[in-house]
Design brief:
There is one protein chain. The protein has helices spanning 11-26, 52-62, 86-97, 114-117, 123-128, 134-142, 158-165, 171-182, 184-190, 192-202, 204-207, and strands spanning 2-8, 30-36, 68-74, 109-110. α1 (11-26) links the parallel β1 (2-8) and β2. It has a four-stranded parallel sheet, with helices on both faces. α2 packs across α3. 48% of the residues lie in helices and 11% in strands. The protein is built from eleven helices and four strands. By secondary structure, the chain is an alpha/beta fold.
Length: 209
């Protein structure tokens, strides 16, 4: 059995880990616990203040209480990513964590943000919400090779696009419902980065056998 800590930036990611991801990982003897990062843990704000040093320090701290540690934070809004690509940012976080067994301690940064995953099957919006403009959502999805490619410009990030089309969308309420409706298998089939991360989490149990 592997006790896995997932440092998450907000309550939506916390719900995703507690729901669909936890049940999937348990099949591989990996038991995931989401840990809210920074101010979100203390109920001050809903997350989003993710910085390199803060995330690295949190992951170093969690090593002492868990068998493995990872993260689930968005590239969009990462405060001090600067001009780094998402892969360069992941490497920088790993370097800031310092000495560790990288088989068991490794950061994950979602490209570009959680809402991008929801474009894996936009029909699920209509099952979780009323008055959903499916034609417009389909059009957005068709513009990009994968849901993870929907860009992170402040005006065109996935969450901004959803907010304009569906003003009554609430991330904490509807995000996990839509993700559950889509299903982990569909998300990982559509989102290569997410799939690679999930495969790595699933393999943790094998590393300790």
């Amino acid at each position: 059995m592997i006790r896995l800590a997932v440092s998450v930036e907000g309550e939506t990611e916390e719900d995703l880990v507690n729901g669909a991801l936890a049940s999937r990982l348990q099949r591989h003897s990996v038991y995931a616990t989401p840990i809210l990062l920074g101010r979100a843990r203390y109920g001050v704000g809903g997350g989003g203040d993710v910085r390199l040093d803060r995330l690295a320090a949190e992951m170093r701290f969690l090593q002492h209480s868990f068998d493995a540690v990872t993260s689930l934070v968005d590239f969009y809004g990462f405060r001090d990513k600067g001009s780094r690509t998402v892969d360069e940012l992941v490497l920088a976080i790993q370097e800031h964590i310092g000495q560790c067994d990288e088989r068991f301690v490794f950061p994950y940064v979602q490209l570009h943000e959680f809402e991008g995953l929801l474009f894996s099957d936009v029909r699920a919006f209509g099952k979780a919400l009323e008055d959903v403009p499916l034609t417009e959502l389909v059009a957005i999805r068709s513009e990009f090779p994968t849901p993870e490619d929907i860009n992170d410009d402040p005006a065109t990030a996935p969450s901004k696009r959803i907010g304009r089309l569906i003003p009554h969308y609430r991330k904490r309420l509807h995000g996990p419902l839509i993700a559950d409706e889509i299903g982990v298998d569909t998300i990982r089939n559509e989102c290569a980065r997410f799939d690679v991360w999930l495969r790595r989490l699933e393999s943790l149990g094998e590393l300790r056998t």
